[in-house]
Amino acid sequence: MNQIYTYGNYLKNKFGCKVYKVGINISGFTCPNIDGTVAKGGCTFCENDSFSASTNEIKDLKGFHLNLDSKENPFLEQQLKQLELQFESISKRQADEYNAEKFLVYFQSFTNTYAPFSTLKALYDKALSFDNVVGLSIGTRSDSITDETLDYLAKLNKDKEIWIEFGIQSVYDKTLDKINRGHSSDNVKEWIIKSKEKGLHVCGHLIFGLPDETKEMMLETSKQAYSWGIDSVKYHPLYVVKRTSLGNDFIKCDFTPISEEDYLDVLVKSIEMKPEGMSVQRVTAGINDESLLSPDWCRDKNIQIKNINKALKPIGLKY
Ligand code: SF4
Fold first, then answer.
1. DSSP for 252-305, written as a single string
2. Interval between CA 1 and ligand 1 midpoint (Å)
3. In this structure, are residues 199 and 161 in contact, taking their beta carbons and an 8 Å threshold?
4. Does 183 sit in the ligand 1 pocket, CB within 6 Å?
5. How far apart are CA 2 and CA 185, in angstroms?
6. For 233-259, how does the pLDDT look when each residue is reduced to its tens digit (9 = 90+)?
7. How many Å apart are CA 291 and CA 209, to the nearest integer?
């Protein structure tokens, strides 16, 4: 049985030691799909509130949010301190519990290029100044990154390892409309190709089980995303949580989540089609608390992984 080429394998090969991603959540960041710039309410599956709980929330923020046109950022010093505190505590735990030796700072929550360049530069530079940090991974939307930011990241990428993570989700605009995504598939394609041309490392996020999509459509999304040259991929099933628009659709019986059987089928076929050198960062997702409405199979990560390995066995792979 061969192991799937995971992101952990990629990092180990490249840096010769255990490299962990340190997920960071900076207060004051939001998303143009939430603040009304592109749309209001966000993607139909996104529980916007769940991002705001940070371990060291900035107290006086009072609803202050950055965007690309923000003229000033009175909270920058506090954001830099917040970054430092989060990094120290998470990286220490990863070193103690998992023997992590080096780190990638992962700007994870909301849209992490959606702020004035001066703020982004200060945060990225600070993150790269921490001990044993080999690079950054920046989660964002393709409609929220400027050429100035992309050029700066490309410059940083000369000495460090810089990743951008784009939510692709689906290549079908009618699906993107249904989930209130607020940008087209062509827009994602354009910025992924641009990022690759500048030498940056790109991870694409895909979701299987989006409203009204067939398995053929999900596989077409994988195929096209691979053809755009992404270096790494995260596969997610669409699960439904409370306090979301998708949750309301589910309660009204207007949305049926993907079955585990169908998810495994699409996942295995997508992995089979994947170019050899493309690493896999995630094969599933879920949540094990009261917020999960459906499907129940997304509750237990260990069982999910066990079933994924069972499904991969016939093609000689394990995760
Ligand atoms: S782009 Fe991300 S943060 Fe923004 S609404 Fe969609 S899922 Fe939520």
1. TT---PPPHHHHHHHHHHHHHHS-TT-EEEES-----STTEEE-GGGS-HHHHH
2. 37
3. no
4. no
5. 33
6. 999 999 999 999 999 999 999 999 999
7. 19
